[in-house]
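Researcher: I'd like a structural prediction for the single chain below. Treat it as a standalone chain; there are no partners to consider.
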Amino acid sequence: MALQPKIIACGNSVATFAMAVRFLTGPAVMAVASIIVGLRGTLLHVAIVQAALPQGIVPFVFAKEYNVHPAILSTAVIFGMLIALPITLVYYILLGL
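Model: Treating it as a single chain, here is the predicted structure.
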């Protein structure tokens, strides 16, 4: 990650799309799946907030090891960590936790 020439190695449009999918679609899919299996109340809210948390470094390590889009994963890890706190706080406030 530190050796890449640009901070956004995969390009702005791909990074924006990846962050939108990660922080909008992920919690939405978690909400639908949680409702289907019967989660309600605080457990449902916690599951949605957890879906909005950033990914760790492990996916990047696997992507680098197997050479499967490491540029996209490195950008996702960097920007995911930076924008996760405000987004998680917004979900926390909206869900009333």
